[in-house]
Structure formats: structure tokens, C-alpha cells
Amino acid sequence: MSVFQRLNGYAWVGLLFVVALGRAQVSPSAAPRAIDPGPVPADPAQRVAVFVPPVLFDEHAFIFVYRSLVNAGWYPVLVGADTVIATGFDETMVRPELRRNELTPDRFAGLVLIGGSGAALHWQDSILFAAARAFEQEGKPVAAYGLAVPILARAGLLDGRAAAFFPESEGIPLITDHGARFAFGPVVADGNIITGHGDDAARRFVETIIRALEDRR
Fold this sequence. Notes:
The chain is an alpha/beta fold. The chain is 31% helix and 20% strand. The protein is built from 6 helices and 12 strands. A hairpin with a 4-residue loop joins strand 4 and strand 5. Helix 2 runs parallel beside helix 6. The protein starts with a helix and ends with a helix. About 12% of the residues have low confidence.
């Protein structure tokens, strides 16, 4: 069964969980802030916005991205649809610090969208579309992983660009129908847009993001 055949069921389950998330408790042992990024830097050029879906986010990619950014000297700020608890596939819980309508490129060096089945809840998200466009227009790195890639496609940011995505026949039209050029490979950078997918690509994905951030310093 492909990721897309499973997606509808996961998305509906995710919607049922949203109400319960506000009552959930953070699991300290699971929270990626086990690596303390330190105090929030005053300089926005040191901060990176990391958007997580409210449910069923890709924990492997999220934790890898978060820890790698911290280790490279960046401060990841978690962003969500709201500031209630977000829950991953394996019930890792994190609390976003900002809502997505607070995302502006003057406050961050770049934007990363984490995937997972819950990202499909944002495929029609005009607020997130506008935020991603604003970062792209400022020339700042905008990255999406897995099922977050169609968010960039629907925002119009992949039109004419090469993008990495799941190679299943059900998946490719989710980006090519919006002008993207499907590219084989786990990670693709086209200008300031970075896309990636797959269980084994998180390291390369975040390394590409960090290089793009460093290039703008």
C-alpha cells in the first residue's frame, strides 16, 4: 500500500485528534528540546521557522532537522496552525511557539515545512501559502519535506522548478499539476526552494538547508 493510499485514512484520523490535542501533555522524554538551543537570539538572521502539522507529522525528519539546525548554530522556532500540542506518528508531542499567521520573513532566516500525513491538512492553507511566498520573495530559503511539498506546489512556488517528491503515480501529479518539474532523487534545490522525501533523506535535506542559510549570512 502506497503512502497515498494510506493518506485519506490518516488525514481523517488526524482531524479527529485535533480537538483532543489541546488537552494533551508534553512528553519531556520525547521532546526534541532535549538539545537546548539556548535563549532566543535577538537577531532574526539566526532564527529558522520550522512548521509542524498538528497531527501525524514526520517525527524522524522533524527531530533530525531540529537537532541539526541547533548543532549548526541556528535557533529553530516551532510554528503551527495554533499553539496547541502537535503530535507525530509515534506520539512525539511538541508545542509550537508561534501560529502560522505570525510568520513573516523579517523575523527569520528561512522557513522549513515538516511533512507527514498531517501535512495534507494544509494543502488548501492560504495562510501558509502566503507565508511561504513572502519568504521566497525575500530570497530566503524555503524547504519542504515529504507530504509538505504539495503545499509549496499549491502556493505557486514550484512552477517551472525542479522538485523532489514521492515517485508513485498517485503522487507525481500533486506537484506537476501545479507546474513543478518532477525530479528523481531524494533532495532537490532549485534556487532558494529545497524539497525532499524519503526515510533516508533527512540528513541530506537538512544539510542542504544549512548550506543555503550559510550562503545568505
